[in-house]
Design goal:
The chain has about 80 residues and is mainly alpha-helical. The chain contains three helices and no strands. Helix 2 packs antiparallel against helix 3. The longest helix has 29 residues. The model has no long low-confidence stretch (mean pLDDT about 90).
């Protein structure tokens, strides 16, 4: 599961970058100032989740245990 968790963390991070760029370029003139602020906050949280998953993946690759519940929680938090 080590490499799989790191792969998931990388994909979640890449998706955060893609969604951030989409918000900055495609939605900039289509959303109100408040709605764009909400988008940016959601995207920031997405990045935090990606970093958390990356940290858990690194912890697991170093032999750490007990990552299943936090991984589930962070992946659920992305929804």
């Amino acid at each position: 599961m080590r490499s799989r968790l790191l792969l998931v963390a990388a994909l979640v991070g890449a998706l955060a970058v893609i969604l951030g760029a989409f918000g900055a370029h495609a939605l900039e003139h289509r959303l109100s100032e408040k709605a764009l602020e909400v988008w940016q906050t959601a995207n920031r949280y997405h990045f935090f989740h990606a970093l958390g998953l990356l940290g858990l993946g690194l912890w697991e690759s170093l032999g750490g245990r007990g990552t299943k519940l936090p991984v589930f929680a962070w992946l659920t938090g992305l929804l």
